[in-house]
Amino acid sequence: MRFRRFYPTDYMRYLYLFLCLLICSLFSCEDEDLKAIIPAYLKVDDVVVVNTPILQKVWPTDKITDINVFVNDQFLGTFELPALIPIQQTGNVTLKIRAVIFNNGMSNDRQDYPFYSTYELDTTFVPEQELYLRPEVEYFKTLELDGDWGGEDFEVGVAFNKSPISESELTQTGEPEHVFNGNRSGVAHLNINQQFFETYTREELRNIPRTGEPIYLEFNYKSSHPFTLSIYTNNRTTQQAILSFRPRSSYTKVYVDLTTVIATLFTASNYNLAFGYRKPLGENGSLYLDNIKLLYFQ
Q: Could you tell me the pTM of the whole model?
């Protein structure tokens, strides 16, 4: 009997064949797994803030930019609007959507807004099918809107005082091209011979939370020049800048987070919020404001 001599090249040939079969088997398994996952799709173009009795004075405008999505209380992620979201968990589910805003107007600081309710829906996701929703949220009914200062929509007056060094004051305008909604908005003009404007809330804020609970100031604005939101403390004996805003040719909405500011200044006896801007001589200036409201939980 003759035996065939086994050479190293034969070993390499068999090893190569084994590895090829193993790789093909693995890819085949992965392909089968991928084929088994056929998602459904959730489409959300916008989130709507609905009017409620708590908003009798101020209009429910919003600038919701993103949504946080939960399926059966599992967080799927944050999605920019409009969004088309693949959902791998099909069948009967509980869907929850939270509204996300630009905190302090900054696109790199997107926050789940604490004062909007959660949209919740028991629904069914079907593989390859698209579910279109236009979620509606509302402000929580436990919000305080009529505390020391009830906000301002400029429809019946102006709840702001002129600073002693200001060269102009905040007044009402009914010009249709400058009214955001309703019949009036606020405006502060500076002519070519004026440089500085500042106004502050007429009522002193005394009873707002000071230990880290959420506090936000919402407002709509457009302006010809940069302007600053600041805070006065202790009967306007000290002042601290909070945030500056870029000029805008059309109205935009901002959500200003005052939580840390107030917590840092917790020993103050009272507070006044102020808006102001400075411009060069020889230029006309204007700052338009509307729907100003201070929000915190009761």
A: 0.85
